[in-house]
Design a protein that fits this description.
Layout: H1 3-8, H2 15-60, H3 70-102, H4 111-131
């Protein structure tokens, strides 16, 4: 048997390799979940800032005169949360693709679905802030 034929032959991983692969996959999932928590905090805090100052403006007539006020700050926080979540999700998918290239039995994660749903929520909040006068 040649070296190339031996390299092309599928080798069944042992128990230690399977467990190490599972730990690696779970570590990637935990990392993405941490990014989901961070992005959710940024999105919700940005939307809360916007709504709080909108409430103050409606109830007490408090207006901010300047280029960068609470509305812009809230919008920026929401946008940063969405961007961070998208970047983290893309990185997670790349890592999982690399892991699957070496070990074909790696299951798919539901964390990416959750990240997509939170991104959608963030986009809805961003649109609400931008188009609301």
């Amino acid at each position: 048997m040649t070296v190339q034929a031996a390299a092309d032959e599928k080798v069944s991983p042992n128990a230690a390799t399977i467990l190490a692969t599972d730990r690696t996959r779970l570590a990637h999932d935990r990392t993405l979940m941490a990014w989901v928590r961070t992005a959710t905090s940024l999105i919700s805090f940005g939307f809360t800032i916007y709504k709080f100052f909108q409430y103050l403006q409606e109830q007490q007539g408090v207006r901010h005169e300047g280029r960068f006020g609470p509305r812009q700050y809230g919008t920026l926080m929401i946008a940063i949360g969405i961007i961070a979540l998208v970047i983290a999700t893309v990185q997670h998918r790349r890592d999982m693709k690399t892991l699957r290239a070496h070990y074909h039995e790696v299951p798919y994660s539901m964390v990416t679905v959750l990240a997509g749903l939170i991104s959608l929520l963030g986009v809805i909040a961003l649109v609400a802030v931008i188009f609301r006068q």
